[in-house]
Design goal:
Strand content: 5-15%
Structural class: mainly alpha
Number of strands: 5
Strand order of the largest sheet: 2-3-4
């Protein structure tokens, strides 16, 4: 069994996703990035963009449990390439492709700063905590077990513990959505470090 490093640089935005918006140079993929408040763009390696050390880790000694969300994210990412290829070649989404997108979009949301901050704030406040846990366990019927399990961890770790249940909940919600795929007609397409937009 391969030994996981103690410190792992983890991406908040999937590299597989970002490559669709970047360019290749000397065997590496790069992005042109505009940071709010700056006057010009800069070019950064996709492999370095939105990386943070152990950001998704859960406080377990067992490396498989500790890196569960990161490992799950990697599995989901590898399937995304097939969806893009199928869209390009077949001009349609198969039922399997739709479910990969359900997982991929939920995963993107659960990795980005604004959504993680939102979930963290719900977990930290007593007036929203129980309602949030009720919401994310509505499809699994394990509300009480989830509450008990979360209570075993310090507040700083509860976000990463709850993010798996949150992602599973979003996948189930997204399964009821109709999907609309838009085709770009011009060269160049923009994205952000929080690529899933929720229209409230």
């Amino acid at each position: 069994m391969k030994q996981e490093p103690e410190f792992q640089r983890q991406h908040k935005v999937s590299q597989v996703y970002l490559k669709q918006f970047g360019y290749e140079k000397d065997g590496e993929y790069w992005l042109s990035v505009y940071k709010t408040g700056k006057k010009e763009t800069e070019n950064v390696r996709i492999s370095d963009f939105t990386k943070e050390t152990n950001i998704f880790d859960i406080p377990f000694k067992d490396s498989e449990l500790k890196r569960h969300f990161e490992n799950l994210s990697n599995k989901i990412e590898t399937r995304y390439r097939t969806v893009i290829s199928n869209l390009h070649n077949q001009k349609r989404l198969t039922p399997k492709d739709k479910d990969v997108l359900n997982h991929f979009v939920a995963n993107l949301m659960c990795r980005t700063n604004p959504f993680r901050s939102f979930i963290d704030s719900l977990l930290r406040h007593s007036d929203t905590r129980d309602k949030f846990i009720t919401e994310i366990t509505m499809f699994s019927n394990n509300e009480e077990e989830t509450k008990e399990f979360l209570s075993l961890f310090k507040k700083d770790f509860q976000l990463n513990v709850a993010i798996g249940d949150t992602m599973n909940h979003l996948v189930n919600v997204f399964r009821s959505f109709n999907k609309v795929i838009m085709r770009q007609e011009v060269e160049g397409w923009l994205t952000t470090d929080s690529p899933v937009h929720i229209d409230k």
